[in-house]
């Protein structure tokens, strides 16, 4: 992991989308008047005839995307996560998932790391909402490399996909030749003292904690669960069998998110105690992203402290 080289996954998304537009002429991008923030403006400049700014009308945007998909287009729709999964939930459920249409919902500015925008814009329930929907694939990439792979890969899936993207720049974890597969996690290390399951922005925090713990002669493994649904049941069970403790960490509510998904797998397949680190049934607060990670105890130091307890 290159701690110095940081790129926001929303930036990676914008760049990948423009590259995908060159490869696939049926890719259409829709945005709800936030293209500078979601970085779909990169695509818009390159392919103005395939970009639609629907204005502040997120629910309408989902309906338009659903209609376009029935004509062989691959719509990528973007807005902040709170407006996509929140305001437009009914349209996603009824107009996209129920008829199983080929729409890619790429939601940026998810989690408390939205920062200064505060609780109203800090979407902490989107993974929970999206993974309960039939036909929906849910992806939460952790870095630039993974995001760029995801954006192209989901164009090959002919069904709804929800991609969760972050606002702040985070370390680049993977080399360009890294192999990924939807439905499979990525294991870092073979430590047996604990397994830390993480997703999105918390993966780099978990990897930093892993290094610090190694200096204390505590060997943990970190598993990047970027594919929330489908989830890597085999790897989860394997880690539960091979390590002493299971910890999950996420920039999301502990209710219904990654921690809940891990618990669901283990309760059915290999009952194991799971310690969930995340937002504990509360709304967010306004502040800088790194300050909020610390405040809600999902940063490197909090992970180290939990393992040491």
Features:
309 residues, alpha/beta, Rossmann fold, 2 domains, 7-stranded mixed beta sheet, 5-stranded mixed beta sheet, 13 helices, 14 strands, globular
Description of the structure:
The chain has 309 residues and is α/β, with parallel strands linked by helices. The protein folds into two domains: 2-172, 3-Layer(aba) Sandwich (Rossmann fold), CATH 3.40.50; 186-308, Rossmann fold (3-Layer(aba) Sandwich). The chain is 39% helix and 22% strand. The chain contains 13 helices and 14 strands. It has helices at residues 9-23, 35-38, 41-46, 58-69, 81-87, 89-97, 126-131, 144-153, 202-214, 233-242, 258-269, 289-295, 300-308; strands at 2-8, 27-31, 51-53, 74-80, 104-108, 137-139, 161-164, 169-172, 186-188, 194-198, 220-224, 227-229, 246-253, 274-279. The strands form three sheets. The chain has a seven-stranded mixed beta sheet, with helices on both faces. It has a five-stranded mixed beta sheet with strand order 9-11-10-13-14, sandwiched between helices. Strands 1-8 form a two-stranded antiparallel sheet. α8 (144-153) links the parallel β6 (137-139) and β7. It is globular. The model has no long low-confidence stretch (mean pLDDT 96).
């Amino acid at each position: 992991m290159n701690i110095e080289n940081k790129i926001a996954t929303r930036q990676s998304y914008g760049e990948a989308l423009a590259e995908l537009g060159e490869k696939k002429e049926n890719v259409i991008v829709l945005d709800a008047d936030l293209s500078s923030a979601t970085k779909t403006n990169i695509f818009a400049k390159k392919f103005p005839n395939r970009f639609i700014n629907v204005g502040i009308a997120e629910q309408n945007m989902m309906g338009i995307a659903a209609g376009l998909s029935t004509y062989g287009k691959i719509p990528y729709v973007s807005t902040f996560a709170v407006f996509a999964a929140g305001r437009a939930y009914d349209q996603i459920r009824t107009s996209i998932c129920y008829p199983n249409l080929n729409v890619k919902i790429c939601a940026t500015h998810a989690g408390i790391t939205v920062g200064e925008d505060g609780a109203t814009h800090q979407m902490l329930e989107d993974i929970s909402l999206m993974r309960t929907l039939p036909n929906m694939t849910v992806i939460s990439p952790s870095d630039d490399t993974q995001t760029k792979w995801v954006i192209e890969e989901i164009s090959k899936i002919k069904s709804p996909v929800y991609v969760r993207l972050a606002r702040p720049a985070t370390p680049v974890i993977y080399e360009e030749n890294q192999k990924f597969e939807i439905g499979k996690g990525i294991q870092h290390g073979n430590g047996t003292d604990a397994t830390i399951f993480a997703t999105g922005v918390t993966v780099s925090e978990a990897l930093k904690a892993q290094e610090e713990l190694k200096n204390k002669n505590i060997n943990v493994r970190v598993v990047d669960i970027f594919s929330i649904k489908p989830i890597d049941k085999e790897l989860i069970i394997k880690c539960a069998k091979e390590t002493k403790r299971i910890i999950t960490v996420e920039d999301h509510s502990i209710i219904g998110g990654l921690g809940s998904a891990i618990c669901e797998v283990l309760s059915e397949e290999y009952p194991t105690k799971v310690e969930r680190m995340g937002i504990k049934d509360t709304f967010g607060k306004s502040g800088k992203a790194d300050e909020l990670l610390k405040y809600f105890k999902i940063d490197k130091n909090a992970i180290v402290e939990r393992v040491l307890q």
